[in-house]
Design brief:
By secondary structure, the protein is of the alpha/beta class. It is built from 13 helices and nine strands. It is globular and about 55 Å long. It binds beta-D-ribofuranose (BDR) and calcium ion.
Length: 327
């Protein structure tokens, strides 16, 4: 039986791929996509979720917009990473799927109450919506099978020397989630930096010969430029699909038990995840923490999902063959 999941995201190049993996892989049943402010404003991340669903032919999965700003601090978007649109690179057609007229937190709450089995939440963005859900409706915690999130790091950060972006944007929300008592799996930078979109990966996506494959290549090509420019990476890491992959097949992402605390006060370390697998601190284990990725199997699953979503085959004209255009 596929695992029922809800993705809470801020597309975002890698969020887009997380949506495609979740929608195209038969091991999960994508019940909803909710959006939050993070990589860009809520308006832009929501538009981007609608764009992804449109080009991937994902219909019938409700999309709901959630919180427009973090719990405490003002929003700081990642325009330097994801561009002015939040998903720069490809040109997108006018979205043909709309949002539902329900706040993300209300939609998640309703699905948790109504779904026959507990549901896994997969946040790939600042944890504002999830924290608000747990604060407003603590009684639904038991309906959450697990929260498998992309965020944090066992090592250093990518927004400050200590803090990863999703946790740094809303540390109070992350703190609420890690202290909630709901089973949490953290897929942080230490593992997502193993999911590099190499030229071989791009060739496989291109080789699908579909519009969707081409859009993935264009997303990853933009992301490659960002990662080369800002961090000197040879190939861009796709963070968010790693959390989806952990739900699809737990064997793909190896985890250890650890206590995880979110630093809220540090002068230079606010938003850092303090991960303690060696139990230096006398704190109870509250999370599974990802430490290793089956890289090849991960990409096999992602490429297969994009292939399964299909979409129209590329024409010679799409492929930039000038002869075809003239014919
Ligand atoms: C996380 O931050 C965002 O920019 C990405 O979409 C990912 O969720 C990586 O730190
Ligand atoms: Ca994200």
């Amino acid at each position: 039986m596929p695992v029922p999941i809800i993705i809470d995201c801020d597309p975002g190049h890698d969020d887009a791929l997380a949506i495609l993996l979740a929608a195209g892989d038969p091991a999960v049943d994508l019940l909803a996509i909710t959006t939050v402010a993070g990589n860009q404003t809520l308006r832009k991340t929501t538009l981007n979720a609608r764009r992804v669903c449109t080009v991937a032919g994902i219909t019938g999965v409700p999309i709901a917009a959630g919180c427009a700003k973090p719990l405490v601090e003002p929003l700081r978007v990642a325009e330097d990473v994801h561009g002015a649109s939040g998903m720069d690179g490809p040109g997108f057609p006018e979205p043909r799927v709309d949002v539902v007229p329900e706040h993300a937190v209300e939609l998640i709450h309703r699905i948790l109450r109504e779904h026959p089995e507990p549901v896994t939440l997969v946040p790939t963005a600042p944890l504002t919506n999830i924290a608000l859900l747990l604060t407003r409706y603590p009684e639904v915690a038991g309906r959450i099978r697990e929260i498998v999130l992309m965020g944090g790091s066992t090592e250093r950060g990518n927004r400050t020397p200590a803090a990863e972006f999703n946790v740094h944007v809303d540390p109070e929300a992350a703190d609420i989630v890690f202290r909630s008592g709901v089973p949490v799996t953290m897929c942080g930078l230490n593992v997502t930096h193993q999911a590099l979109a190499t030229p071989e990966v791009l060739a496989r996506l291109e080789g699908l010969g579909t519009e969707l494959g081409r859009i993935c290549v264009e997303l990853l090509t933009y992301f490659a430029g960002t990662y080369r420019r800002l961090w000197g990476f040879p190939h861009p890491p796709v963070h968010d699909p790693v959390a989806v992959a952990r739900v699809i097949d737990p064997q793909l992402v190896h985890c250890v038990d650890a206590s995880v605390a979110v630093e809220l006060r540090g002068e230079f370390t606010r938003g850092a995840t303090v991960v303690d697998p060696h139990r230096y601190l006398d704190r109870p284990v509250n999370a599974k923490v990802a430490v290793g990725l089956e890289v090849e199997a991960f990409w096999d699953r992602l490429v297969a999902a994009v292939a399964a979503l299909g979409g129209p085959a590329r024409t010679a004209e799409d492929a930039g063959d000038p002869g075809a255009r003239e014919a």
